[in-house]
Design a protein that fits this description.
- It is a single chain.
- This protein is of the alpha/beta class.
- The protein has a domain at 44-252: Spore Coat Polysaccharide Biosynthesis Protein SpsA, Chain A, CATH 3.90.550.10.
- Helices cover 52% and strands 12% of the residues.
- It is built from 14 helices and 10 strands.
- The chain has helices at 2-27, 56-67, 84-90, 104-112, 133-138, 160-180, 197-204, 207-210, 223-233, 254-276, 286-330, 336-344, 346-368, 375-398; strands at 45-51, 72-77, 94-97, 119-123, 127-128, 145-153, 192-196, 213-214, 217-218, 237-248.
- Strands 3-2-1-4-7-6-10-5 form an 8-stranded mixed beta sheet, with helices on both faces. The chain has a two-stranded antiparallel ribbon with strand order 8-9.
- β8 (213-214) and β9 form a beta hairpin.
- The chain is elongated and about 85 Å long.
- The N and C termini lie far apart (52 Å).
């Protein structure tokens, strides 16, 4: 009786990730509700870019792409000066130096305080916007839209870490495209997101945004989802512009990929905790709530199910292997004991098959978002990346109170250098190629 109950519980629980994968794979192929209108003039947009510890070549490419939009560009040095000040001035943008490092959120607030245009584009210092990208983003601001995000791309690379990052990014795109078909997206990527200035101005300057606390400790994480939830809470929609591909850098090593995703997972668990205690948007819609819980809790649920199902899986393989051997040696596939065994594990076996179907459908949707010449390599890297995601989800939950800094590789409490590190390698995203679809 206990075995029957255990098999039933695990099978029903296993339907949750299957339903999540199949739903997103299907809806990601449907046309979204976003309507593109007339773009706003460059003078209606201001670009705010915080910077700290960024590679000089990458930073220069990002500033140059921002200036080419024709809008006002404000770069905020988060407790740092050169070489960023010289680069910004040589490109014709404005540089604001904060006297000491305060984190990305404070840098965003300092930049936003100088914005007078109706729209503001927050851009990371390692992200390149295509020519006309800012205007294209502004074209999606219908009367009910409060925030618009770009679709993130990575430069092509043969490194395993870059392949893992690209798979994860395209998997997120599948989920966000599915949400776009129903209304609001789950979050706007912090690397490139545009808002109505007066809508977000009071919130960015508020204590709720600047000093988000986890177990009594202030965390620098969550700028993107905090802004998304705030916009939704004010009755506006948040949408993605999939035709605007902003190119951002990917980790160069597997270790860097793991550290980046640990930071993201910690932020995700913080957001889920905020939502479960009623601090999220009050009425984002049933599908939005299902996606939020499913996206953030799915890795942990999958990990827990894998551990719980492992002994039963071994037992199932052993029994079916014995059945195959019996059939080959005696010609008898089912006897009384085997028939009882098959019915006993019917739900478990059916759910396993459905899990394979759901996984295959979702991976197929991800593959559809990849360029053909990179598809097999990226999917192979994605196998490793998915395994690492499960581990980082568990580790991120266990260490959520240790929320890391807004820059990868920079720990809270570390020295605050006034000078940036010397350039490493070359960064020329203006020449491509990119992972476009």
């Amino acid at each position: 009786m206990i075995n029957w109950v255990l098999a039933l519980v695990l099978s029903v629980a296993g339907l949750v990730p299957v339903t999540y994968l199949l739903t997103n794979a299907y809806l990601s192929r449907r046309r979204g509700r976003n309507v593109r209108g007339d773009p706003k003039p460059p003078t209606a947009i201001t670009i705010v870019m915080p910077v700290y510890g960024e590679d000089a070549d990458r930073f220069r490419a990002s500033v140059r792409s921002a200036v080419r939009q024709g809008s006002r560009v404000i770069v905020v040095g988060d407790g740092c000066g050169e070489p960023y000040r010289s680069i910004v001035r040589s490109e014709g943008a404005e540089f604001v130096a904060l006297p000491e490092r305060g984190g990305k959120k404070r840098a965003l607030a300092a930049g936003l305080a100088r914005v007078t245009s109706p729209f503001v584009l927050f851009l990371d210092s390692d992200t390149v916007v295509p020519d006309g990208g800012a205007a294209a983003l502004s074209a999606y601001f219908a009367d009910d839209v409060g925030g618009v995000g770009a679709n993130l791309l990575h430069p092509e690379s043969d490194s395993v870490a870059a392949g893992c990052s690209e798979f994860v990014e395209r998997a997120r795109e599948v989920v966000l495209r599915a949400m776009s078909s129903r209304g609001n997206v789950l979050y706007l990527d912090g690397a490139c997101m545009m808002f109505r200035t007066e809508l977000v101005r009071p919130f960015v300057a508020s204590d709720g945004f600047q000093r988000l606390r986890v177990f009594g400790r202030e965390t620098p994480l969550g700028d993107d989802w905090l802004l998304t939830d705030y916009v939704l809470g004010r009755g506006y929609r948040t949408v993605k512009a999939y035709d605007v591909g902003a190119v951002t850098s990917a980790p160069g090593t597997v270790r860097g990929f793991v550290r980046q995703n640990v930071r993201w997972m910690r932020s995700s668990w913080i957001r889920l905790g905020q939502y479960l205690r009623g601090a999220g948007p009050r009425d984002p819609g049933l599908f939005y709530r299902m996606e939020l819980i499913g996206t953030y809790a799915l890795p942990l649920l999958t990990f827990a199910l894998a551990i719980a199902r492992f002994p039963m899986s071994l037992h199932l393989v052993e029994r079916w292997t014995g059945a195959a051997y019996r059939f080959l040696t005696t010609g008898v596939l089912f006897d009384r004991s085997l028939s009882l065994f098959s019915w006993h594990h019917l739900l478990f076996s059916l759910q396993t098959a459905l899990g394979l179907v759901g996984t295959g459908a979702f991976v197929g949707a991800v593959a559809n978002r990849l360029p053909p010449h990179r598809r097999l390599r990226t999917l192979a890297c994605g196998l490793l990346g998915s395994g690492l995601l499960l581990l980082t989800a568990v580790y991120g939950l266990a260490t959520v109170w240790r929320a890391s800094s807004w820059r990868d590789g920079i720990r809270p409490g570390s020295p605050q250098p006034r000078e940036a590190p010397s350039p490493v390698g070359g960064w020329a995203p203006s020449t491509g190629p990119y992972l476009r679809r």
